[in-house]
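Need residues for this backbone.
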């Protein structure tokens, strides 16, 4: 059996029955642990689990422009990696400046109209 509790920041700390030493824990590094969705904690309205948005449609101005292929966690703000059907993906921080709406049920992410511009201040920068 396994138990968990909140850790520092967005980490969860867990304990697996029978794993009692640092050496035994190291042997399990990179092990994938599967948890039934029904047992996951409820999230606030502005929170999501990565799996809820993987492969989600990305919309701008009423049109689907791509799909989320990866969610990166370089710091306190998630970064969406979006496949636009071009050679280079688009990386968009999940901030209100870039993201208009997130719908985990659809699933879809609606970006601000200027999210594809290199410089949102300069409309000619496309």
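Answer:
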């Amino acid at each position: 059996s396994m138990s968990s509790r909140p850790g520092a920041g967005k980490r969860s700390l867990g304990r697996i029955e029978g794993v009692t030493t640092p050496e035994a824990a190291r042997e399990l590094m990179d092990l994938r642990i599967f948890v039934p969705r029904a047992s996951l904690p409820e999230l606030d309205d502005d929170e999501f689990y990565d799996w809820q948005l993987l492969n989600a449609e990305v919309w701008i101005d009423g049109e689907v422009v791509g799909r989320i292929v990866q969610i990166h966690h370089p710091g306190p703000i998630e970064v969406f990696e979006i496949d636009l059907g071009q050679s280079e993906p688009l990386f968009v921080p999940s901030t209100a400046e870039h993201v208009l709406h997130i719908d985990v049920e659809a699933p879809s992410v609606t970006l601000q109209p200027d999210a594809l511009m290199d410089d949102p201040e300069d409309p000619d920068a496309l």
